[in-house]
Write a structure and sequence with these properties.
By secondary structure, the protein is mainly beta. It is 5% helix and 46% strand. The chain folds into 2 domains: 88 residues, RimM (Elongation Factor Tu (Ef-tu), domain 3, Beta Barrel), CATH 2.40.30; 62 residues, PRC-barrel domain (SH3 type barrels, Roll), CATH 2.30.30. It has 2 helices and 12 strands; from the N terminus they run E-E-E-E-E-H-E-H-E-E-E-E-E-E. The two termini are 34 Å apart. The mean pLDDT is 92.
Length: 168
């Protein structure tokens, strides 16, 4: 399962929920007929429950969504703090030079000189751009996930090349 975001609160009285997306194109999720929810973002596939998506739209800086069978605020409150995910085959195909966060986590990071900087442990959403959390033992580097610093992403090879020095 790829974790897409998290339900953060009910929205209104008709069963809508507010969703904090973990990516920059949540409206692309409208193409999926179902969203999967779970209280545990690390649950195996059996730990996720499919809900048929009725509607979703941007609202302010976030996303709001409605599901079949979730028709009032009380039902929406039952979804509060649940993670939203989808199996890989249900996800829209990313465009060239776009990646799902889940695809980046675990990649080995090397700089242009070939020096190993660590492994992508996570990403941070800062508003301006995403930031790679690269860990090497107890050391953590924060590398902006922008073209000026990320030279190449090789998903098949399991590595990412960055214009970043080891002592930065």
């Amino acid at each position: 399962m790829i974790v897409l975001g998290r339900i953060v609160a009910p929205f209104g009285v008709k069963g809508w929920v507010r969703v904090h997306p973990f990516g920059d194109d949540p409206l692309g999720w409208r193409r999926m007929s179902h969203w999967w929810i779970s209280a545990d973002d690390r649950a195996d596939d059996d730990g996720w429950r499919a809900l048929r998506l009725k509607a979703c739209r941007m609202h302010g800086n976030g996303l709001i969504a409605a599901f079949d069978g979730v028709d009032d605020r009380s039902a929406a409150e039952q979804l509060d703090k649940q993670f939203v995910g989808a199996p890989r085959d249900a996800m829209p195909q990313p465009a060239d030079d776009e990646y799902y966060w889940a695809d980046l986590i675990g990649l080995e990071v090397r700089n242009k000189a070939g020096c190993q900087l660590g492994t992508v442990a996570g990403l941070l959403e800062t508003g301006a751009h995403d930031v790679l959390q690269v860990r090497d033992g107890d050391e953590e580097r924060l590398i902006p996930f922008v073209g000026a610093y990320v030279i190449e992403v090789d998903l098949a090879g399991g590595r990412l090349t960055a214009d970043w020095e080891a002592d930065w």
